[in-house]
């Protein structure tokens, strides 16, 4: 069967699913389609023309290369296609974004045919995705006196690719659709269990919210054809949990507008709102697509006549509605006054959603065009030896004399590019920064690859110190979807220049280590900036930002990221931990005590948590920084003692060396380069030349939080509170309860020790608890299943050397095998311990899941509805989050233990301890 016939067969199958033909990225398929176009008698010619014009992916896909060359043949007159004139061929090239299309356009612009040269030049003046090979051709032609090259460069220097775009409409009419009450997780917009389909945008769009919600959105659009639908998180924050580009893509697919008539299912300009705004990392993704994210503030804390906040019987602030955004409400965004209106009535100021920079993103159809446009303008001005005119909104530069710098301000100042020389910048400043480490994970990686192709990037930026492509999110089950997607992803990323978990040539053993753990090891500088395709990109060294797949692609391609310097909240500790407590309990208590200290206001949201935790090694400190995603912080920074940082760097070096020994380094010797940089950093610390990063004594913080360890008496549990009468209070990470609250009798159906929140000591705790309980009772029996997934293979190797793995094997009823990986997801569990493959496992919810309606006790980070466990008729699934010893004991007892049982079970066990740094 020909590849086209196979495509027709697939198209027929998609039609039965209510889908259009799949967008074409294959050179082989498009080549056959072109042959059918050339054959005027071919029965498939009409359909082939449609597919060629409207259904071929742009950028650097292999199909784009074939398309560009065929259009070149048409322009040159080598081939005549009645439906594609020369002018139309140039128009099609203009929508292909970059890569092969730019090469063809430069061939014409710098060629001898005057008419085609001018047409190509006119198209090139609208393009921004040019790379070094392209700009070098322009520069050489200009230096050789080429008039067209001069004309193009002068246009670039004036940034006409931006200035000649239509202005943003003064009024944008919207109609609301309330997607949910309370915090809306990106899982609602793009469920984790549908991760395999994210790169197939139309198919993936079918999973947004519910089919019923999709029909409601379509009905609103039919009723209000002149308005955009705004998705709303009523009484909550929109887009918590992760950046999830696929979530924004889905919102844009259903409510946005098509970016190009010749590129299928790539939509832009979504509009989203939340009573408490938009999650910071999700908002970055909205910017990528030229959308608008609004902090609605339509519910506020009620105050009495004395100005005091009114509280209910639970001591929670009582909210009152300022204005309604119920589904079907018609509102107006005014981009000039920066206000939101209902008719003539002004509701709120939305200037933060419409800053000069964000207005540029909206005008250009997304932030990438601005990033690349600025680079092109700078390049052109330099070649022409002129000063680039001020076209773009100037970066806000805030410098406060006499005010010291927080840790994040220091890192941003060190890594900033393009700022006023000698100027020290404080929070609120807009900064372009160089990125040191980049991480791509496997359920968003295919989208990152698509983004790289779309922006015509072919090789990693040389200024990136190291980048890693993981295989952890699809580690649990090697099913047909994983087999189809992951090898293709690994080859693309390996060719691009990343260190990859799987070797396309099969020279080294496939790794499924949790990405955050690997990034934490390969970050070898406390002054580094890290960008990763996951909300839990939160390192214990440097400052790390979880990002959408597009921002990851941008960091890989350019080595840069752009954002305002965030405000910081300082967190310090006093007192001492009780002997029976685990550091995970301190992490949860931090969130609880912060909310108590600030009357229920989450001062962490959208800010940097600067946590002074200097005596904990990187693995243990990561438990805190990892959880800051659930605290809704933008990122976290660990302030470490010199000696502790040196120890952490030595551990990192040893783990990077293991990767090298396995054969994972590439021809650029990236991993060896990281070891060399780590040695340099250690030498700087030891010599006193550059001690571990600390803030200035005169730094200014948004708030300061002091956590009292003395008052943490019991293990702390984050509870989804699934039956709270106030729907907006369910499935947040803010309900933190102690063990006694549950009375020692709440049934637990499954325990899970794993995800990025655990380190080697947690696995040792499992082993030690089994030994403890065996001594106390003679044997250990599980009354609920216990799933254990080590985060990395290194941990398993070390546990084997230290004798703990053997003890875990003794009690396990299942142990993973890399030689025989599971090819179907487990749906039923026995009351045994499962030793699963390193990776994310239950925390992701895209492969393994608990049984519907289960109550799960887990060490992981996610408690959102349907993530780890789905509901069943008559019973809500719930995922409670706790420390390793609580999870293990809950699985053994089949219920949450009481405090006496817990203390007896952990007696003598070396739990993760933390001693606050005392002021010297």
TrEMBL record:
Residues 6-162 form the Aconitase B HEAT-like domain. Keywords: Iron, Iron-sulfur, Lyase, Metal-binding. The keyword Ion transport does not apply. It comes from the Bacteria. Transmembrane segments: none annotated. SUPFAM superfamilies: Aconitase B, N-terminal domain, Aconitase iron-sulfur domain, LeuD/IlvD-like. The keyword Iron-sulfur applies. GO terms for molecular function: 2-methylisocitrate dehydratase activity; aconitate hydratase activity. Pfam families: Aconitase, Aconitase_2_N, Aconitase_B_N. Residues 410-894 form the Aconitase/3-isopropylmalate dehydratase large subunit alpha/beta/alpha domain. This is Bifunctional aconitate hydratase 2/2-methylisocitrate dehydratase. It comes from Sphingobacterium tabacisoli.
